[in-house]
Design a protein that fits this description.
The chain is elongated. By secondary structure, it is α+β, with helices and mostly antiparallel strands. Strands 8, 9, 10, 11, 12, 13, 14 and 15 form an eight-stranded antiparallel sheet that branches. It has a seven-stranded mixed sheet with strand order 2-1-3-5-4-6-7, with helices on both faces.
Amino acid sequence: MPYSPISFISDFGHSDEFVGVVHGVIAKIAPDVKVIDVTHGIQAGDVRGGALALLRAIQYLPEGVVLAVVDPGVGTARRPIAVQTDWGVFIGPDNGLLSPAVAMVGGASAAHALDNPEFVIPAAGSTFDGRDRFGPAAAVIAGGSASISELGSPIDPQNLTPMLLPLPEHDTGRVTGATWWVDHFGNVQTNLSPDDLDAIGIVRGGDVALTIGPADYALPFVEAYGDVASGSPMLIIDSQGLVALSVRDGRADEFFEIGVDRPVTLRRQADVS
């Protein structure tokens, strides 16, 4: 039976030894298992940011095991869990982090708490479940030495913590969404899709009116970054198929002075008097 790869995402960063220690735990238990580091740059404790990053990545990851650790509630009553899907097994805290990606791959068929002490590394403290619970669970599942049911008590998959994400709001001639993510380049992703733009008659090649708080902007809706002059803002469909604000050779988050969780409203420029 081939080993399953582990796709590892966390908010650990690389300043401390945390990522390396989890890799070490996995290597000691299942030395032949491949670990893919998706990202460890999630903002500390940003569960929704981690959930969205995993959601963006999941369709491009090999089937196997997801090890996701963004866990500000570590050591509390929140449950460490393993979730079975048709895609594979998701391991992490039951705080909504796993829910969007699990839904994306078709939903959970089973879930178990990670409460079997056989697969827990004893520790004096309870602040590093990535090392003590999640890493070992991922290793034994990926290495084929345990089944999900052996990891601990069964949980009703319907009772897992959801991640509530905002939906676009449509009004006559306009759509309002929210900013979800600012990437390394300063592009600002929204929760709006091309269908949301189609619904109000915004098409590529046209101009768009953008409202952020009290500020209004006019910008083109283009196909590629090179379709505008250097330093110019644009509306574009990003690599995830969502509407994003960008600036050629610049940062949209700085140009628009915007971060995550901000409302944005779009209208056709032709409709603005």
